[in-house]
Amino acid sequence: MMRSLFSGVAGLRTHQTRMDVIGNNIANVNSTSYKSSSMNFSDMLYQTTQAATGASTTTNRAGTNPKQIGLGSQTASITTSMNAGSPESTNNPYDLYITGDSFFIVSANGDSSYLYTRDGSFTIDEEGTFCMSANGYPVMGYGTTTDTSGATVIDTSSLKTMPIMSADNKTSAPSATTKAYMTGIIDSEDTDFDTTTGKTVQLSFYDNEGYEYTATFAITQDTSTSPYSYTVALSSIVDSSGTAVTSTYSFDNVTLAFNSSGTLDTTTGTLTFTSPVSTNEQTITVDFSALTNYANNGNSTVTATSGTSSSDTTGSGWATGTMSGISIGTDGTITGNYTNGQTKLLGKIPTASFANVYGLEKQGDNLYAASQNTGAITVADVTSAGGKMTTGQLEMSNVDLAAEFTRMITTQRGFQANSRIITVSDTLLEELTNLKR
Question: Do 135 and 119 share a structural domain?
Fold first, then answer.
């Protein structure tokens, strides 16, 4: 009789624990990336009142089964469902949603004491570091380095904090113009060639400190040749305020001799310019090969543009730029965008995957810690496991309210039934004590 009392108590305790799990799931139904838990029961240690006996050929007696009385139920396990929640759009460029079963890596102090999360609600702190918006824990990732060719590449040698909006990254360094080209039609019937200055074409270019200048070229026609040839000469260079530049510059006149098809063979000229600001000398190679000598109703359409061609901006040069935003690729690559049209590789967000993801320990704040049962941890590109990152989205909780309410009903009935065991056992004890009356 006393055993039934304690079995009922054990049943109440385990059902209360299950209700605690259900309550926590429902409380976190709207927690970002929350993973619901479920509890499994198991029966408790049994008291054997009679052991089993085997059959005897000597006495011809059959065997008997053991007689055992259970002592109630207990919590067998509390399992976390690691299924991904549905994505929710936020339109915040720093919010990230991961497909697949990998995790972001964060650290409370920016060291190797790593924690893991599916919560991609990130922000930038006052020092420009990419971090969790809830607690400021830095997101750990890869920085950049320079390879043997001088190109900026991802440095995968170690995990670090990512100050993607540091002072160095907020600006894009200027670059001097080294290439330019002229394109369009030079129409022989264009009356502008009859003037003293000829046809003027302007080219904008930059020095090594990002200051902009405008070079004016004069194209004059030589009517003594057939077909006509043209001479390109440099008239002047002015700065961005329109003031004439008095520093050293030169340009060897170029003759444009069109063939019978109205096109040019490879024809280039060289503009040498010494910046009045930095006294740096730069050389700009101007390509005239794209010009044509076609009829165009007396209108010439010659333009000069910095760069190599209309599809290649190599050598175009640019001014100093300020960061206008960042973009995060599906593989976690972070790129800075600048007002001068340039981009800069800032870093990369890797993810962690586990041999046994169910071995992770919840730490609160949507964080997990590795345990002795998580097995091997693999840190790699999110796409290596078939996943990807999506910006402007967050992972919702995977709590199924219908399932939780169903479990709540069965748990409540189980609790009630176990309480009746205690009530009935108490009544039996009361009858027993009344025997002495």
Answer: yes
